[in-house]
């Protein structure tokens, strides 16, 4: 962060980063890409039933207002004039689905989060309607039919929530992903708020044709979604509207990208074949495939990477999605209590430097790429009487790295040219043990920017470059070069292969846990959806005793 005494003046750009666990607002210099100030607010998640994950849209919106206000206060303390903030970009958790009343501005239901599994029965029913020899959903959207994406979440609300049904019948309902909810609210809400999204977020709904770049009637008919609920779709870089209240009243919102696409832009992966991996709640590896759609034969998604201007072309990406990365650390903290803060996991893992044969598959929401296996559930295996919380902490970090290797290998097979290094970003990259583990398990160098806020940077770049703002040049010669930290592999390739092969055995054992019942039923039968913590804690108590859980030798 900039020294207050030398803080850059001139054009500044703000970025809202609305994630699953927190909201942040960050302000950058458009000339140097230097981060001046920021503020963060943690969010609550609700788990009403096993497999369900919800958030309060009003809490999310309030967190955005709070982050903007507090960041502006900090800038004022630094003697930086907030009138220098010329634009704001938005980056958001994708797929999370909101539906609200356009007359009152009130959400009609909690936001159904991308991790939510309640729609498994909906997915199974819809799958039966797709001809076996013609998966038109995937060919139009680049996505497999899965609980992950917005269309099935919206379909569930329309089927199960009377408030939503009534509002739709009366023409009062609006649908959107988190970006749409925020832009509509910030630009006036019931008083003329702009109902829109960008192509990157639209491409994650399963209702958007990624070839024609428009909502697709055949898809909407298939999911039985009324098209008048849907937001207007714009590019990722243009003025959508002006902020109508607060410290930044009158400032244009002119950038919008789903969080992983924002990170791709922030890492400056503008060339075909460039890739980045973001370590957040989940883990997301994106590879720029240029102006052509590349369809995966190995379980990856085809998605829109960015469209940086009304008249600019859309660029595409292959994506490998892992549901649980940073979320496993939060789970160890909040559910098992073996760490007090997220940062403690690095200390525990460093103490032992090995999992001692313990393997953790955190399939809390099934397995995403490359398996797309909703029946999987989390397992911890290879436990002995010697196992303690340090080994479990190490195994949790290894699990993130093994999952990344799986999607990297799938991407290498699809692209035909193996990546020679991996660019990384996200909050977890501050964990040096994790970064070294990742280099060891991939057996290629891992490269991390010293300024890890690349998601925010990407949103700021898109906002600042928009026509009518034009304070940030995206020309290659004008882009600031990020300073990088490099992690080289430190183990033999044979050791990496042995550990990876054992992990794959554990993955196979995690599959098929949910067989007879759907999480939609809310039935806590031990054969369908017994909480994962029950299995792990019970196993630990039986195998190693409570004193080993606490790390007592």
Automatic annotation (TrEMBL):
Enzyme class name: transferase
EC number of this enzyme: 2.7.1.30
GO biological process assignments: glycerol catabolic process; glycerol-3-phosphate biosynthetic process; sperm mitochondrial sheath assembly; triglyceride metabolic process
Main subcellular location of this protein, as a coarse class: cytoplasm
CDD domains named in the record: ASKHA_NBD_FGGY_GK1-3-like
Record-level GO cellular component terms: mitochondrial outer membrane; sperm mitochondrial sheath
One Pfam family cited in the UniProt record for this chain: FGGY_N
Domain of life: Eukaryota
UniProt keywords, alphabetically: ATP-binding, Cytoplasm, Glycerol metabolism, Kinase, Membrane, Mitochondrion, Mitochondrion outer membrane, Nucleotide-binding, Transferase
Coiled-coil residues: none
Name this protein carries in UniProt: glycerol kinase
Organism of origin: Cercocebus atys (Sooty mangabey)
Gene name linked to the record: GK2
